[in-house]
User: Fold this.
Amino acid sequence: MSELHLATKSSPIPGTTRDRLGRPLRDLRISVTDRCNFRCVYCMPKEVFGKDYQFLERKALLSFEEITRLARLFKAHGIEKIRLTGGEPLVRRNIEQLIAMLAAIPGLDLTLTTNGSLLQKKARALKDAGLKRITVSLDSLDDAVFMRMNDVDFPVARVLEGIDAAAAAGLGPVKINMVVKRGLNEDSILPMARLFRERGHILRFIEYMDVGHTNGWRMDDVVSAREIVDIISAEMPLEPVDANYRGEVAERWRYRDGQGEIGVIASVTQAFCRDCTRARISTEGKLYTCLFATGGHDLRELLRGGADDARIHAAIDAIWVQRSDRYSEIRAAQTVKLEKIEMSYIGG
Ligand code: SAM
Ligand code: SF4
Ligand code: SF4
Assistant:
């Protein structure tokens, strides 16, 4: 928090702030709730997030007005894209209202990541509120495997219905995120690739990461992006595609027969920290400059303490210019030492 107090009154030139490694600020992920109706074993394992787990109180959460004010302020620092996440963003009451407020900010690419469980009900309202695109997480097409992963017996069919509803509402092309954990769902890689290639959705495979300290991560559990590409390519040949833009997280591969593409997010085996332009705001308004940061900077304190825009601009600038995070690049040396923040809190 000390950086906030270092903040000076002189305003930076909007959009030009660079961190210590020369990286600009381009993407903002905002966690709108720390709650979720799933208990994915790699994210919110039941042993930790059980009945007695204390989630944040309602008044601790940033209000929609506070989130929108921050979004406007961050826009001036070069933010081009906002992703709403959580926890499960669709469990936050009246989320459509927030979407409408954010969609009114010109020039922002607005998207959201969801587990898809409430999407069939909400897709149309999200689109009408101004959401442009959506990413749905789904780890298997096999009910037994998927239920073992979400740990609340949620069936695959309901997520597929949600994906269909999103596509029908015009939120496509829908992106699908699949976390691959060895011994749990590697057998689902090919069936998932086949189905979403046929349906024209972009499937993105995510290497299982050591976020937080509750998921018992081990390197042996990671199925590498390379391995995933090889498995798919053996049946449906793939070739690499250039990134859409610098700093794109997913490495793109297209099917050689022209039938669509996939992405692989190799956050563990091929760290992409040097192009990382992402900041995260947690549910209670802390700014994190890395998914693996050990601490955040309290923006809610400023918002609720009556700070004017210039003060908050200066604080954001002071935090970003000091940023030197590159956790994934130095993971091997640090992974056992750090008290990391849970992904469901900081936002994936
Ligand atoms: N609840 C929403 C969902 O599941 O899509 C949004 C929040 S979730 C934390 C965002 C993304 O992070 C999801 O695609 C999820 O699969 C991914 N994720 C969670 N824990 C992970 C881990 N340990 N390694 C890799 N990805 C993870
Ligand atoms: Fe919930 Fe998403 Fe985490 Fe699964 S990955 S527990 S759906 S927040
Ligand atoms: Fe960005 Fe931190 Fe992930 Fe590196 S480890 S890509 S700096 S969020």
Q: What stands out?
A: DSSP finds twelve helices and twelve strands in the chain.
